[in-house]
Amino acid sequence: MKSNMPDELKRLDQALARMADRAREGLEPGGEFERELLKRIRGRSPDARIIKLDGEDSPNRRGGRLKKPVLVITIAALAACLVGVVGFRALLSDPPGMMEFRTGLATIVRSGRAVPPSTVCGLRSGDLLETREGKLVAYFDNRTQLLMNRDSKVRIEGKNAVNLQSGEVWIYVTPGSGDYSVTVPGGSVHVVGTSFGVQVTGEGVGVKVTNGKVLYRVGGEDAGIGACEHLFLPRGGNLAEATVTEDKELTRPPLWVESLINKMAEERLRKFFPSAVPIENAK
Amino acid sequence: MKGGISGTMRTRDLKVDVTDLVTRLQKGETSAVRDMVRLYGARIHGFLRCLVRSDETAEELTQEVLIRIYRKCGHVNSPARFESWLFTLARNIAIKEMSRSRYRKESSKELSWFDTWIGSENEHPLEKISAEQSALLLREALATLDGKRREIMALRYFSDLSLKEISHVMNIPIGSIGTTITRSLESLKQYFDSRGIKVEDLL
């Protein structure tokens, strides 16, 4: 078999082996991985005897056997830890949503560390999504779709809550999926089944609604915004200062939303039917 | 690589006596766990990452595999079969994970290696290629292969196993493994050709 392989394939084999070697350098687990593993091994072990430091016996061991009360307490503590760890991990491992599509540059900050979006699928509570020159679409478990415009910052607070720190988002909430809220500086927007956009700028907060109705809550007071209405609240102001204008053309989302949805659809089409040509090019 | 068809030798950074490692693991020594992570962590992760297509899932599964190795290494009778045994374990865990609905939901989310390159300032796609991009490009190429072939090639490149060991893990005759590798290399060559990447660029 060795001699039958053409030279070109042998060289490719060598090249791939070298690439894998380089890739492994990048995958070498660090201290955190090792610490987490040790923690999990200790937390899971059904037998307290394996909890032992390098080259020394545990102080609770005598002649290789554990004292009975210590054994019971240890097993109870381990069981409690296990329940806690499993519960906590289940909580963490249940991502409220996932990044569905992205164009251009976007960052996800998780536990204070920027994570390349190419390596992230599930979004977790606490993640900070930041688009610079890019745009992003996130999809949540309750079928809510969040579209982020350029230069926007959003923190995920759960499957039905986000915090818009700056920039602009457009949200499609499926009717019947429960309440959905967007926290903005000085207030929050609450909806049940609608499509709407929220914009935070240096001048204030703007809310545009194309379908349904949303409530804008500031300091315990609510203002209702219906379809084809645009509310603007100056920065630091109260609801009495808010202006609501009717915009009959507000039956469709802004152009950037439509363009992002089209791009996403095009990308999916290309993925499933690589030979498909976009309609505009076909003309 | 031991028994490899290319004739090249891949060196392993760590030389740990497997019998000694297994004995120390059975005793519960923390240093043995560290050696296990250093010796097998990246290899298992690399292999699993080719199958599950998400870094997080691969990392979780790698931990799962290492924990099981730690707990079950007492069952290993022949140290010579230790690596085949642990990669069989890794493969079984990956197969179980892949059959779960969560995997299906995540499976198509990885961005293309070319997407990351298009966003970079490099003129040539393989200029200053990072370890992460190397991994991504190789995974992307392997993803074009069907299930069995992908597993075999992932075991070959990421897990650094010999043909005999791959044969044990996959439960396929060694001759078939060699044929599959040759066929897979032909497919991969076509893939790289279609993307305008020459073998020389990869070397």
Tell me, briefly, the overall form of chain A. Answer: extended
Contiguous helical run count of chain B? 11
Protein structure class of chain B = mainly alpha
CATH superfamily (homologous) name of the largest domain in chain B: RNA polymerase sigma factor, region 2, helix turn helix motif
Largest pleated sheet of chain A: 17 strands, mixed
Task: Describe the SSE topology.
The complex is a heterodimer of chains A (283) and B (203).
Chain A: H1 7-27, H2 31-44, E1 61-62, E2 65-66, H3 68-92, E3 97-103, E4 106-110, E5 113-115, E6 122-123, E7 128-131, E8 135-140, E9 145-148, E10 152-158, E11 161-172, E12 180-184, E13 187-191, E14 195-200, E15 204-211, E16 214-218, E17 221-225, E18 229-234, E19 243-246, H4 255-272, H5 279-282
Parallel strand pairs in A: 11-12
Antiparallel strand pairs in A: 1-2, 3-6, 3-8, 4-5, 4-7, 7-10, 8-9, 9-11, 10-11, 11-14, 12-13, 13-16, 14-15, 15-18, 16-17, 18-19
Chain B: H1 18-27, H2 30-52, H3 55-72, H4 82-98, H5 101-106, H6 113-118, H7 131-143, H8 147-157, H9 163-170, H10 174-194, H11 199-202
What do you see in this structure?
The complex is a heterodimer of chains A (283) and B (203). With 283 residues, chain A is α+β, with helices and mostly antiparallel strands. Chain A is extended and about 75 Å long. Chain A starts with 6 loop residues before the first helix and ends with a helix. Chain A has helices at 7-27, 31-44, 68-92, 255-272, 279-282, and strands at residues 61-62, 65-66, 97-103, 106-110, 113-115, 122-123, 128-131, 135-140, 145-148, 152-158, 161-172, 180-184, 187-191, 195-200, 204-211, 214-218, 221-225, 229-234, 243-246. The relative contact order of chain A is 0.07. Chain A has 2 domains: 45-92; 97-269, Sandwich (Jelly Rolls), CATH 2.60.120. The model of chain A is unreliable at 45-66 and 277-283 (pLDDT under 50). Chain A is built from 5 helices and 19 strands. Chain B is an all-alpha fold. Chain B has 2 domains: 12-109, RNA polymerase sigma factor, region 2, helix turn helix motif (Rna Polymerase Sigma Factor, Chain: A), CATH 1.10.1740.10; 111-203, Winged helix-like DNA-binding domain superfamily/Winged helix DNA-binding domain (Arc Repressor Mutant, subunit A, Orthogonal Bundle), CATH 1.10.10. Chain B is built from 11 helices and no strands. Chain B is globular. Mean pLDDT of chain B is 74; it is low at 1-14 and 103-127.
